[in-house]
Amino acid sequence: MSHAVNIAIDGPAGAGKSTIAKRLAAELGYIYVDTGAMYRALALYFLEHSVFLDDEAAIESVLPQISVSLGYQDGAQRVYLNEEDVSDRIRKEEIGNAASKTSAYPKVREKLLSLQRNLAEENDCIMDGRDIGSFVLPNAEVKIFLTASVEVRAKRRFDELKEKGEAAELSQIAEDIRVRDEQDMNRSVAPLVQAEDAVLLDSSGLSIDEVVAAIHRIIAERRTA
User: Fold this and answer.
1) Residues in Cβ contact with 99 at an 8 Å cutoff, skipping those fewer than 6 apart
2) Domain tally for the chain?
3) Whether the Cβ atoms of residue 36 and residue 18 lie closer than 8 Å to each other
4) I want to staple 30 with a disulfide (CB 3.0 to 4.6 A). Which of 6, 124, 155, 181 is the partner?
């Protein structure tokens, strides 16, 4: 039996990882695994159950009460928290900020690591996150580090929120992104870092189509190398 093919896409908040990974997965016929959504599901639980985000011991104490799983509907990933579909509820800005903070705790990462690796072992997949190529799937066939300037990332997020009809302030989003970058890059466990064998791709001046095409070229080059 041939082994599953894994493609890792890492990068900072707002770089477009999810959008790009979803498109690629659909075009390649792979499953898409959004690891950030898993951390957001945990963060949603912490917030809804009034668990203080700075209290690592309290966070650890409730982990056994939480189950996170993924499902797929029409090829789209759905995220389940204790068997409830929370795919839409986890997309709020406050959930993302809480996930960035709590994902720094080793026990939080440990809880989700085996689920992520099992999915990759059993399926051809594109997995995105902060530490996929460097930590979760160090043997992935193709690794991309997707980034963009803070200004570009903030504007993309701002436009996305406005489109959903949500109130948003560009300067606050930019500040939140800077804080999340700082947290993600400086955490002690699995920090945001470009894996040595990852290809750096700056999407600041590129359209979604251009980024997808560039990654298709990188995949083709790796396969013929």
Assistant:
1) 36, 39, 40, 42, 43
2) 1
3) yes
4) 124
Question: Is the pLDDT assigned to residue 2 strictly greater than 60?
Answer: no
* CA 58/CA 56 separation, integer angstroms: 5
- Does residue 71 form part of some domain? yes
Where is pLDDT greater, at 73 or 109?
Answer: 109
Q: CA-CA distance, 132 to 9, in Å (whole number)?
A: 7
In a domain, 204, yes or no: yes
Q: What percent of the chain has pLDDT over 90?
A: 72
The CATH number assigned to the domain holding 89 equals 3.40.50.300
Instruction: Kindly report the backbone phi and psi dihedral angles of residue 159, in degrees, each rounded to the nearest multiple of 5, phi listed first.
Output: -65, -40
pTM to 2 decimals? 0.84
Residue span of the structural domain in which 193 resides: 6-224
The residue count for the chain: 225
Look at residue 1 and tell me if it is in a domain: no
